[in-house]
Structure formats: C-alpha cells, structure tokens
Amino acid sequence: MSFLRQAASKWRFLAPALSLLAPSQYEIDPAAACNALREIDLSSISAIILNATYYENATEVETLGVCTPIAQISEPLCRVQFVVNTSSVSAVTAEAWLPTSWSGRFLALGNGGLGGCIDYINLDYGSSLEFASIASNNGHDGNSGVLFANNSEILEDFTSRAIHVETAVGKELVAAYYERRPRRSYYMGCSTGGRQGMYAALHYPSDFDGVLAGAPVTNFNHLMGWSGMITKYLGAPHGDKSANFIPSHLWDLVSEEIFRQCDGLDGVIDGIITEPDACDFVPETLLCEGRSNENCLSKVQVEALRKVYSPLYGLGGDHLFPRFDPGAENASFGKWALFSGKPFAYTEDWMKYVVLNDSSYDFSQFGLADVARMQAIDPENISTFDGDLSAFRARGGKIITYHGRADNLVPSGNAKSLYNLISRTLGLQPSTLDEFYRLFLVPGMEHCIGGKGAVNFGQRKSIGSSRLQHIDEKQTKLKESSQENFQVPGTQPSNVLLSLVDWVENGRAPDTIIGISDDGKTTREHCRYPWKSQWDGNRWMCAKEAIGAQTGQSLHSD
Ligand SMILES: *[C@@H]1O[C@H](CO)[C@@H](O)[C@H](O)[C@H]1NC(C)=O
Ligand SMILES: *[C@@H]1O[C@H](CO)[C@@H](O)[C@H](O)[C@H]1NC(C)=O
Ligand SMILES: *[C@@H]1O[C@H](CO)[C@@H](O)[C@H](O)[C@H]1NC(C)=O
Ligand SMILES: *[C@@H]1O[C@H](CO)[C@@H](O)[C@H](O)[C@H]1NC(C)=O
Ligand SMILES: *[C@@H]1O[C@H](CO)[C@@H](O)[C@H](O)[C@H]1NC(C)=O
Ligand SMILES: *[C@@H]1O[C@H](CO)[C@@H](O)[C@H](O)[C@H]1NC(C)=O
Ligand SMILES: *[C@@H]1O[C@H](CO)[C@@H](O)[C@H](O)[C@H]1NC(C)=O
Ligand SMILES: [Ca+2]
C-alpha cells in the first residue's frame, strides 16, 4: 500500500516544501500505524484510546453511543475511538477518522439539539473529502438534557468544552498517525453545531482557520425562551384542550393563505418565499366570523397566529428574538415541534435540568420572567451572542454561515441579528466584514437541510436527497452516496465546505453559493447577506437593492 506516499503526493501538490521529507517516512503500512495508535499514551491530556482499527474497504460499522446503530465508512481509513476526561464527573467520547488519502487538513464536527450524538454521517463525508475528521458526543449520550441536572461539568462540555477538547486530542492523533500536524484546521456543524462553531471562533480563535456554521443557535437562551413562548401561544401544555390550539388541518389552511399572500412577492409563484421579512401576513382573512365552518379560525386562534408571526419582546419591551419566518410552518422536519400543543422538549429540558434542577417543573408556569431568568443565568455561557470576533479575524480566520429561510425551528432572522451584531461590535460595514465573515441566506430551505429550495450545496453528505438523510437519522441503514448525484448538465452546485477551504487557502471568497434542489431539477444562486435574491424576469440574481426594486446591481458586476 502506498499509504503515506499517496498522502505525500497530495502534500507535494499542495505544499511543495514537504517533498523534501525523507522517502522512508512514506513507507509506513497504514494498518500497522493504525494499530500502533492503540498503545499511544495520551494520559497527559486525560485521554485514553478505546480502539483503533484500519478499514481497507468501504463498509458499515457499529457506532458508539445511543443515537444511531450503524455508520458508513466509504474510504480507506484508520478509525480511532477515544475518551477524554474533562473533569472527575464528565468525559467526552469521540472518534477520529484518519483517511489514507489525506490532504493535510483537519475537520472537527459538531452536534445538534441538546446532543449527545457523534456525527457519523459527516465523519464519512469529511474523510471522503480527505480531511482527518473528528466528532464527539459533546460530553453526553443521547439528545436530552437530563444529564445536565446538578452537573455543571457535563453542561460545560455541551456549551463550550467538547469541541475544544476533541480538537486538541484530534490534532495529537493526526500528528501521531501521519507524523505531522495538520496544515489547516476547519470546523463544520449546523444548528447546535453552528453555535459550537461560533463559540470556537469567539473563545478558541486558534483552533480553526475556517469555520462553517449552519443555522447557528446563537442567542441560545432567547431561542429557548422564544420556542417556549411559541408553544404557549399555541396552547402548550394543554394541547387540543386549549382554545389557542391550531390543529394540523388548519395549519394547512394557514400555510396556503401565507403562500397566497406572499409567494408572489418575489415575482415567482414557486412555493418559496424568498424574503420572509417582506411578508406582512394578515391572518384575519382566515377568521370564521360566526360561520360554523371547519375550514376557518376563531378569533383566539388568529390572535395566536399574530403572536407567532411577531418578534418576541421581553417584560421591559426589549426585543429578544426575531419572529417565526412566514412559509416555514409547512416545513416537514420537526413539523410539530412547536405546534403540537405540548411544550418544546428542549425548552422544557432547559428549564428542568439546567435552570432549576427540578424535574417536576410544571411548564404551564412558563412565561417571560423565565426567559429573563435563563438569560440572566446564561448557564455556562451558552448564549454565544457576542460580536467580538476580533481575535479570530486577526489570525486570518474565515467564517461561512448559512441559514434556511423556511426554518421552522430557528428563525433565519437570528442569523441576520448575529451578522448585524458582529458588524456593530467590530465597527465594520458589510463589505469589510465580508472579508472574513459571510452569511448566505437560503430561500426555501428548512432547518440545515431539506425544503423546496436549492437546498444542497455540500453542507453535509448528500444521500440521494436530504429527505433520506432525515430518514437515516431515524436509524435506518445508510444508503450508497455520491456527491455526483447532484450534478445536472451546465450547472455545478457549490460545495460550501470546499469553498471555505478555497477562501482560507487561496484567498478566493465565495460571492454566492449555488444550491440544487432535492429532486435535482433546480439550481439557484444563494446570496450573501445583505445582498438580496432578486428575479430579473429570466433568472435569480443577487442584488444590492431591496427586493422589488427595479434596478438591482448584479453582484458580479460590483
Ligand atoms: C478517566 O476517568 C475514569 C473514571 O474516573 C478513570 O477510570 C480513568 O482512568 C480516567 N482516564 C484518564 C486518562 O485520566
Ligand atoms: C476494536 O475494534 C475491532 C473492530 O471493530 C474489534 O474487533 C475489537 O474487538 C475492538 N477492540 C476493543 C478492545 O474493543
Ligand atoms: C478489500 O477488498 C479487496 C478487493 O475486493 C479484497 O481483496 C480484500 O480482501 C478486502 N479487504 C478486507 C480487509 O476485507
Ligand atoms: C443547578 O445545578 C447547578 C450545578 O450543580 C448549579 O450550578 C446551579 O446553581 C443549580 N441551580 C439551582 C437553581 O439550584
Ligand atoms: C405543504 O407541504 C405539503 C407536503 O409537502 C404539500 O403537499 C403542500 O402543497 C404544502 N403547502 C404549501 C402551501 O406549500
Ligand atoms: C438536584 O439536586 C437537588 C439537591 O440534591 C435535588 O433535590 C434535585 O432533585 C436534583 N435535581 C435533579 C433533576 O436530579
Ligand atoms: C463564562 O464567562 C465568564 C465571563 O466572561 C467567565 O468568567 C467564565 O469563565 C466563563 N465560563 C466558561 C465555562 O467559559
Ligand atoms: Ca416565490
């Protein structure tokens, strides 16, 4: 096997100086080198190796943890499983997938929700793209907050420590296996993973050269508060016994009415509301007005909708969180998370196991005072709503962030708020901020993936369609995968992870990101905020002018 010789030839391509290394270094047998990692002593960094196994061929393997039983390995690699003690009462379990064909790059991966789940799909994706890839369980297994109760160490792993620890140990493993440290280090994650990436850039600015942060759940306490308030407006915890509750067949009606009022605002009736902030949804058109019709809403239900589609303000009238994006109500993933008449599970867990340490907490008491309380405590600095990226910027770090505009779990307004916070904090106007931080808003995309828009742009491994990815997360077997599935003649969707690499390593920043729809039929350029996606009669373009303006200046002619 030409293990390190192969790696070396890539190195030579990318970094000519390394061809000076002695040839003998390239003659190591990868399987033997992998087995040797079992004996490596990492006790000085509180880590132990559980196992190290070389996989010569694509295969399915059993996983660690409780989230998914089987993972796919697509390329030859050394799989290392390890545990790092982060305190006497907490530990992070992690895996490093070290591909035989290595680009010299390191990729750390994040988590989702309140998890707890090693991101096996992207370990496979990253290693297939020749990154030495690391993912952890974020300090606890599963996707609930129960273990946070009375244990600020496990909570700290989740809020701020696990990514830093997996990265530190991961880089040591890379050095041991390839006999050199990674040339460049990247991070990729979405949702909680997006927040973790932002946290790393803020607090560990030298961990990564590039961060890809999708739908980051920054301003976390207010997000938990907002989610809790939305469920309250809609009847939680009393479900269909509450007059505010809106049953699913009426949500279909609400969604239809929103699209009737707002789909065409962008000039194209396509089931996508390009700019939800331009949608001034008037729910009163759905009022029954005394009719005893099944297909209409009571005054109380319409009032609930008014609150859902308005921003959240605090007890003192201060703006806490943006509104639910009109059009996102029809998203398929997590569709009833906020509409079921039950408390949002993460908000309830956050109150019970973090804010109060009281598993008997009664959610019917939840209100704005609790939102203020969460924020005042800001448990282990979870908020991650800080615009001071100056240290990361000074090191030359780059951040790409993206957010779907039909995201029913985290409003896309949160990404705008963060962008504007950073701009304000650093005193940089967008054209200067864009030198290291770019936000791409993705019309018609749900939470991280999925939806009617051009939602695939390399933000994670594509498995035929992102619908299948949702199914895969629900523990079915992984399917054969290929990025090439998504290429249609004449248009190449972007790979946003490799765009980040190109930006960091070659200084070529992506002006736009091209996505392709789940059915493979539509591509569309996604614009970086504050540019607007605008239909010029023939095609979508990115324009500086407000949507609906007659003369948009094209991004490319800027
Ligand atoms: C981690 O903690 C466990 C349990 O406290 C202990 O058995 C183990 O030796 C520790 N590992 C390291 C590397 O310190
Ligand atoms: C290490 O992994 C291999 C392959 O899955 C397995 O056969 C072996 O039992 C594992 N060893 C330990 C100590 O878990
Ligand atoms: C890997 O695949 C090759 C070609 O099919 C086969 O010869 C080899 O035995 C396989 N290796 C393992 C470890 O299964
Ligand atoms: C909950 O437990 C954590 C960890 O022990 C502690 O820091 C916090 O003060 C506790 N909160 C309350 C309200 O008791
Ligand atoms: C909502 O989603 C369903 C299922 O995907 C679809 O059939 C329906 O047309 C959508 N409604 C609107 C208004 O887009
Ligand atoms: C946290 O500890 C307190 C004091 O020991 C206890 O009353 C409470 O039940 C614990 N909370 C949880 C959720 O275990
Ligand atoms: C949270 O932030 C405060 C204030 O900056 C700092 O003193 C503390 O160490 C931080 N905690 C963690 C877990 O990072
Ligand atoms: Ca439209």
TrEMBL record:
GO biological process assignments: xylan catabolic process
E.C. number(s) listed in UniProt: 3.1.1.-
Keyword Mitochondrion listed: no
Keyword annotations: Calcium, Carbohydrate metabolism, Disulfide bond, Hydrolase, Metal-binding, Polysaccharide degradation, Serine esterase, Signal, Xylan degradation
Molecular function terms, GO-annotated: feruloyl esterase activity; metal ion binding
Pfam family for this entry, one: Tannase
Catalytic activities: feruloyl-polysaccharide + H2O = ferulate + polysaccharide
Signal peptide (from-to): 1-19
Broad class of enzyme this protein falls into: hydrolase
UniProt family annotation: Belongs to the tannase family.
PANTHER family (UniProt xref): FERULOYL ESTERASE B-RELATED (PTHR33938:SF15)
Protein name: Carboxylic ester hydrolase
Lineage: Eukaryota, Fungi, Dikarya, Basidiomycota, Agaricomycotina
